[in-house]
Structure formats: C-alpha cells, structure tokens
Amino acid sequence: MRGQKAMGVGAAASVERQSGAIAGVQERTAYSARQTRPLRLWLYFICFLIGCTVVVGGATRLTDSGLSITEWKPIHGVIPPLSLAEWEEEFAKYRQIPQYEQINAGMSLAQFQFIFWWEWAHRLLGRFIGLAFFVPMVVFWMRGQVPQWLKPHLVVALGLGGLQGAIGWWMVSSGLVDRVDVSQYRLAVHLSVACVLFAYLFSLARMLVVPVVTQFNRGLERGAQLLILLVLIQIFLGALVAGLNAGMAYNTWPLMDGAFLPGGMYPLSPWWLNHFENVKLVQFQHRMMAYLLLLLAGLYLWVVQKHVSAAEAGLRRVARLLETALVVQIVLGIMALLSVVRLDWALAHQGCALVVLAVTCELWVRQRRVQGDT
After folding, report:
1. Helix (H, G, I), strand (E, B), or coil: what is residue 259?
2. Residue 228 sits in the same domain as residue 347
3. Distance between CA 319 and CA 332 in Å, rounded?
C-alpha cells in the first residue's frame, strides 16, 4: 500500500512538473511572440517580396523577356539606360544573340524596351530583396533582438539569397549562345531555390509565434514534411512545363491528347530523358502530381479530423485550408491550360503555388514541439 501511495504521489508530482514545464514554455513563447513581432513582420515582408519576384519572373518568361539583358552587372545594372545612345547600345548587344536572330529579327527599339523593362524589374526586385534582408538583419542582430536559435538560420537564408542571384545569371547565360531561350533545367532550379527560400523564411516567421504543441503526433509531422516536399517537386515540374512551353500543347482537360493516359510518352532515349525533355510526358506528370497532392492532402485532413482533439482546432483549419488552396490551384492550372497559357491565368497559377507552399509550411510548423527558450 505504501508503495502504491508513493507511486501515486510520484505520478502526481510528475504530472505537475510536466504541466508547469508546458506553462513555462507557453509563457516564454507568448513573451517571444510579443518581443519578436518586428522580426516576424520583416520576414513576412521578405516572403511577400519573393512572391512578387516569382510572379514577375513568370511574366518575364511568358513575354520572352529573360534574355533582353545580356550582361550581369550586380551593382551598375541597377541603373537602366537613360539616353537614346544607351538604349541603342543595349539593343545592339541583344541583336547579337540567337533569340533576336531567329525569333525577333526586325524588332523595333520600342519592342525591345518592353521586354527589357520586364527583365530589369525582375533583377531589381532580386537586388532589393538582398538589401531588404541584409540591412534589417544587421540592425536586429546588433540590437540583440534576434533569438539565439534564429541566428544561424538567418545566415543560411542570406547565403541562399546570394546563391539564388548567381543561379539567375547561370540560367540566363544558358540562352545567350546556342539557344533561343534558357535551359528548362536551370529555370527549374532557379524557381525551386526561390521557393525553398520562401518556405524557409515563412516557416521561421511562424516558429516565432505558433504556440507550444500539446498533442504532438510524429506521424502528422512527417506527413506535413512529405506534403512540403511534394509541393516543391510539383513546382519544379511546373518550371519544366514553363521551360519547354509544354502548356502551349495538349490544351484540353480532363483528357490529354484524347485520353486520360495518352500514348507516345517515351520516344526519347535514354528513357529517363523523357521526364525532363518530352513535352507530352512533362505536362502529364505535372497533371498527375496535382491529383496526387489533392488526394494526399484530403487524406491528411481526414486523419487530422479523426485523431486530433478539438483543442487543436487551428490544425484542423489549416488542413482544410490546404485542401481548398489545392483545389483553387488546380482550377487556375486548368484555366491556364485551356486558355493556352494566357498571361493572367498563368501568373495567378504561379502565385497560388506559393500560397499552397505557405499553407503546407504552416501545417508542419503546427506539428513541431517547442523546445527550450527562444
């Protein structure tokens, strides 16, 4: 009896200590949420700028503007041509590349200026993001406002941003010599790194405010991680579609080339090359990944509603929001396809991809345990 009584007292003490620990973490989290509000707003702003850059980059691609600036001038390139002589100089450089010679021969200066401004705006946004990230980071850091755990993450994000700029030029340079457009592989890498950076910063911002998880489920966390990975893969596949102009072909839905499972998808050798260079298969796998994501998100929602308590209502809302966002994204993709990639539908589709990515990141963040002080 004494042993049982002691065990009961010990269990009660353990529960009390656990409750006290959770309360302590919640208190520190709440304090952190108040104190880190400027950090969160800053990170949200950077995510917004990345989203704008992705959409402008999509417009640059759809208007064939990406090769209009044939040099990489990280500093001097901020200043556009300011005189007729400078415009003629830029135009002369463009006339030396294959895209002009094979596609745009005879283009007027006014037409060149139209595509130039799209590419210039895209590059300017990239430069502004670097400045808007680095300067506030230094200020927050010097003021002691950056939590210790966040510091290495910000350094990683800064490095990713610099890498992204280099990847952008690596992509453009692929279309200046032997091609009339950029490599679809490099385009896919460029877009994917931008989206990884977006997801990384958005997740960090949410970690600064999302409260402690009281009902942690390792399976749900891994499911959310899988969804993030699949969304990023789908974005990569979408970039291949854009790079090959695959959206300009097979503009019917739900059938493709007269069938749900069309034939003739492996004409290239070796076989695996078709997944990256065959227009039909590239578009088909982008379609199928969309259906798979919708199915898995629905399954995730079902598991959440069945196994997560009413106390975690926020998680249920986010799971429902993900399913809704995917439906909207698929509809936008269908409209872009049926319209033969009309600019407004295509840009809405590209922008909504980041919304889907943000919601999947939110799903994951809400399944993470808050560990230690922030």
Report:
1. strand
2. yes
3. 20
Is 214 a member of any domain?
A: no
Q: In the structure encoding, which two tokens stand for residue 295, read together?
A: 């199915």
Instruction: Give residue 374's pLDDT band: very low, low, confident or very high (50, 70, 90).
Output: very low
The answer to whether residues 32 and 147 touch, using CB atoms and an 8 Å cutoff, is: yes
Instruction: Evaluate whether residue 4 is within a structural domain.
Output: no
Q: Which residues contact 270 (CB under 8 A, 6 or more apart)?
A: none
Computed from CA positions of residues 363, 200, 167, 325, in that sequence, does the dihedral angle turn out positive or negative? positive
Polymer length in residues for the chain = 374
pLDDT (tens digit per residue) in 5-30: 444 544 444 445 445 444 444 444 44
- Taking the chain, what is the end-to-end CA distance rounded to the nearest angstrom? 44
Which amino acid belongs to residue 19? S
Do both 119 and 173 map to the same domain?
Answer: yes
80 near 120, Cβ under 8 Å? yes
Whose structure tokens read 């950076």? 197
- One domain, residues 133 and 102: yes
73 backbone dihedrals φ, ψ, rounded to 5°? -125, 85
Domain assignment present for residue 12? The answer is no
| pTM (2 d.p.) | 0.88
Which tens digits make up the pLDDT trace of 144-174?
999 998 999 999 999 999 999 999 999 999 9
**Which residue, among 216, 287, 212, has the nearest Cα to 246 in the 3D structure?**
287
**Omega of the bond prior to 80 within 30 degrees of 0, cis?**
no
